[in-house]
Amino acid sequence: MAGSSDCFSPGFKPAPYWWEASPQEPDRQTPLPSSADVVVIGAGYTGLHAALQTARAGLDTVVVDAEAAGFGCSTRNGGQISTSVKPSFSVLKRRYGEDLAVRTLKEGQASLDHVADFVTTEKLDCDFGVVGRFHGAHTSGQYDKLARDCEARHPGFETGAWMVSRDRQRTELGTDAYHGGMVLPRHASLDPGKYHAGLLRVARSAGANIVGFCQVNDLKRTPQGFEVSTSKGTMRAGKVIVATNGYTGPLTPWQQRRVIPIGSYVIATEEIPADTMNRLFPTDRILSDTRKLVYYYRPSPDRKRILFGGRVSLQETDPRKSGPKLLAELVRLFPELAEIRISHSWAGIVAFTFDTLMHCGEDNNLFYAMGYCGSGVGMAGYLGSRVGKVAARVDKDLGAFGDIPFQTRPFYSGKPWFLGPSVAVYRLRDRLGI
Ligand SMILES: Cc1cc2nc3c(=O)[nH]c(=O)nc-3n(C[C@H](O)[C@H](O)[C@H](O)COP(=O)(O)OP(=O)(O)OC[C@H]3O[C@@H](n4cnc5c(N)ncnc54)[C@H](O)[C@@H]3O)c2cc1C
C-alpha cells in the first residue's frame, strides 16, 4: 500500500494534523486601527513573540497576517526543538573567528532554554517535554563522524550527548536501518498548534491587537515612520517588524533576496496499535538522521500516530503527492508498517539562507528576524523576542545573529531556480553515503 494512492485513510485530510486540536481562527473581522507604534507583519512565532515584547513595554502594537494567525510554518511544523544552529563550531570559527562562533552557539542554547522557560512561565498547555533526540547515522561513515562530533565538545556548551551503537539501537528505535546514532538529551518536543494558540492568547492579553486575513501590500517610509497599506486599509506606524520567514515576498525585497523558500512536507499516520508503537518507539524521543535531505519524525503526543516529515520531491508538490512518498520512506525504516495509511498530509514553506544561519537586524526602525533553515520552533520565538525588545528600546543588542552579515548572491531575486538540481545532488550524496 505504501507509495500508492490507496494509502490514504477514509477520513484523510490534506491539512496539518495539529489543526484537529487547534483549528485555525476564522476572520474575527477585527477592524484595522489607523495607526500604531509598532506594526508586526506575520503572526507566527517570530511575530507574536516580538509583539509580546513591544506590547509589554507599553507600545501600541498591531500584528497583521495575510491569512489566519499561524497559517504559516508555526502550526505546520514537526514540533521538534533543537538548538537550531546547523554549522559546527569549527565551521563557525573558520568563518567568523572564535568569539563570534562561541556567541552563535550560545544563542542556539539560549533559544532552547527560552522556549522551555516561556511555556513554563506562561503555563502553556502544549505537550512540551524535554524528551531528547535520537539522531540516526544512515551509513557507518556517518556514525564515525557523529562519534567524533560527540567527542569534540567545546567547553561552555555541553550537549550531554552520547552514542548508541547499532547493536543497542533498538533500545531507542525499532529499526535496523541505521548504523547506530547519537542521543541529544536536551532536545525537546511540543504540539506546535497548541503552542501557537497559547502564544496567541498571551500576546492578546498583553494588549497586542492581532488582525488576521490582512495582507500587507505596500510599505512606504514617511517622515514619521511608515505607511502600511493592507487589504483591510492603511495604517501609520512608527516601527515595523517583518516576521514573514519562508513567506517573505516582494513587499520587502531586501529580505526576499536573502531567504530561499523551500517546502517541507509531513504526514500523520492513522492510529497504530499501542504494542506496535511501544515496540517501534520505546521512548518519546524526537528522531532525525544524518541525511542531507533529512527525515524527521516522532510519535504524536498521545503516542497513537507517527508524524513523519522530509523532502521527497525535486520541485514543490501537492501534499497528496508527497504523502505516499513519505509513507514509502517510513515503511522502509519500519517494514511492519506496510499496511498503515495516512490520515493527514501537509506542507509549509521554510526559509533557508546562503550561510545556513538565521538572521535578525534593523534598518532605521524596520526590524526583521528570519531564515531559520527549517529549525525555528525554539529560535523563531527567541529571535522574535530579541527583536521586539530592541524595537521597544528595552534592549540594545540583537546578539550574534544581528552581527553576522545577511548574505545574498548575485542575480538571486528570491526564486530558487537551483532548488531541483540541489535536491538531486543531495539525494545522490545521501545514496552514496557522502
Ligand atoms: C512542515 C514543516 C516542519 C517543520 N518542522 C520543524 C521542527 O520540527 N522543528 C523546528 O525547529 N522547526 C520546524 N519547522 C520550521 C518552523 O516551523 C519555522 O522556522 C517557524 O515556524 C517560523 O516561524 P515564523 O513566525 O518566522 O514564520 P511563519 O510561522 O511561517 O509565519 C510567517 C507568516 O507571515 C505571513 N505573511 C507573509 N507575508 C505577509 C504579508 N505581506 N502580509 C501579511 N502577512 C504575511 C504568512 O501568512 C505567515 O503566516 C518546520 C516547518 C515546516 C513547514
Verbal overview:
By secondary structure, the protein is α/β, with parallel strands linked by helices. The protein has a single domain (5-132, 186-424), classed as 3-Layer(bba) Sandwich (FAD/NAD(P)-binding domain). 30% of the residues lie in helices and 24% in strands. The chain contains twelve helices and 19 strands. The chain has helices spanning 18-21, 45-56, 89-96, 98-121, 140-151, 192-205, 253-256, 274-280, 319-333, 379-391, 400-403, 419-432; strands at 8-13, 35-41, 61-64, 80-81, 133-136, 162-164, 181-184, 188-189, 209-211, 216-222, 225-230, 233-242, 260-269, 286-289, 296-299, 306-310, 342-352, 359-363, 366-370. The strands form three sheets. The chain has a nine-stranded mixed sheet with strand order 1-17-13-16-15-14-5-7-6, sandwiched between helices. Strands 2, 3, 9, 10, 11, 12, 18 and 19 form an eight-stranded mixed sheet that branches. α4 (98-121) crosses α10 (379-391). It binds flavin-adenine dinucleotide. Flavin-adenine dinucleotide binds at residues 41-47, 64-67, 71-74, 76-81, 215-216, 243-247, 249, 251, 264, 266, 296, 309, 348, 350, 370, 372, 374-377, 380. Flavin-adenine dinucleotide (FAD) binds next to α2, β4, β13 and β17.
Descriptive terms for the model:
single chain, 434 residues, alpha/beta, FAD/NAD(P)-binding domain, nine-stranded mixed sheet, eight-stranded mixed sheet, 12 helices, globular, binds flavin-adenine dinucleotide
